[in-house]
Design a protein that fits this description.
The chain has 307 residues and is mostly beta strands. Helix content is 4%, strand content 41%. The chain is built from 2 helices and 20 strands. The radius of gyration is 20 Å and the shape is globular. The two termini are 22 Å apart.
Length: 307
């Protein structure tokens, strides 16, 4: 399971991946108007620079993961940091003009400085299948909690951050995020999920000319993320295909992205489909944003595929 800890950039250089590129057609897959393919797979707009105009940023994540054997686990974590002495140049990547939702990471980011950890007394979560209360350890760190079960037990997940008011304390706040439905993968390149599990080759090849069509049941997520990550025998630790788009039920991955992945030496790949519900909580003093919290709840399914 991936640890939720998004790259943060000081407010003068914000380049958040979920900012808008364009709006998307609302028709469903299979209708006379396509919602995926060239010109249709776009990125939802979730954050504006004004809402995130602060160096004090929290990222709070709840991620339920289902894998092929039916096992579920849920990672709950929270980070509170001052990014005033931290900057990053995002990792180099390959973009695709006609497929703005997708890109391939081809290198590592350049980072200078470091986030300064901020203190909270506790972070309490409600609406999960088990009670979760994150508390600082003896070093002041806030260890994540991994539940070996399904995570979401209510339509909304409540988050309560308790904190003091001294220097170095992140402001206390309460908010909630909607619980996402577990994604149901219907087809990859016209093959059902069951057929994919029997023959897991998906055509990762340098000379591929057709896009990879991915279809799932739409369920009102704020966004959907699709990833293909080199796994066994990978020749890099950063290569990854990432697509972020609307939860409209379909996506086309450009053939050039699969051709680029084919350059990696991996013998198999992790194919991951994530549905996200998202909330940005801004803490203001008058009109000025004092601090902000990125709250993301996701439900993810993952399977292994081959070339």
């Amino acid at each position: 399971m991936e640890v939720y800890n998004p790259v943060m950039i000081p407010k003068t250089r914000w380049s958040f991946i979920l900012c808008a590129l364009a709006s998307c057609c609302a028709a469903a897959c299979g209708s006379s108007t396509p919602t995926c393919g060239e010109g249709y797979d776009n990125v939802p707009s979730l954050i504006s620079e004004e809402e995130l105009n602060t160096y004090l940023v929290s990222s709070i994540g709840i991620d339920e993961l289902a894998v092929d054997d039916g096992e579920h686990n849920t990672l709950v974590q929270a980070h509170f940091s001052d990014f005033s002495d931290y900057s990053v140049i995002l990792a180099p990547r390959m973009d695709f003009r006609d497929y703005p939702a997708c890109y391939v990471i081809t290198g590592k980011p350049e980072i200078s400085g470091a986030p300064i950890p901020m203190h909270v007394d506790s972070v309490a979560f409600t609406g999960l299948t088990e009670e979760v209360l994150l508390l600082p350890d003896e070093n002041g760190n806030l260890p994540p909690e991994l539940l070996p079960v399904r995570g979401f037990a209510a339509e909304q997940i409540g988050i309560e951050v308790s904190s003091g008011s001294e220097d170095g304390d992140f402001p206390a706040f309460e908010d909630f995020v909607a619980a996402p439905a577990m994604p149901v993968l219907e087809a990859v390149d016209g093959r059902s999920y069951e057929a994919l599990r029997e023959d897991c080759a998906i055509g990762i090849a340098i000379d591929r000319v057709e896009p990879l069509r991915v279809e799932w049941e739409p369920a009102e997520g704020d966004y959907v993320e699709f990833k293909i990550i080199p796994n066994s025998g990978a020749s890099t630790d950063y290569m990854k295909l990432r697509c972020i788009t609307f939860d409209d039920g379909c996506l086309e991955v450009p053939p050039g992205a699969l051709g680029n992945l084919a350059l990696d030496a991996a013998t198999n790949f992790r194919l991951r489909l994530e549905r996200h519900r998202f909330t940005l909580h801004s803490i203001k003093s008058g009109d000025e944003v004092e601090a902000a919290a990125l709250i993301d709840a996701s439900a993810s399914m993952e399977t292994l595929v081959t070339r």
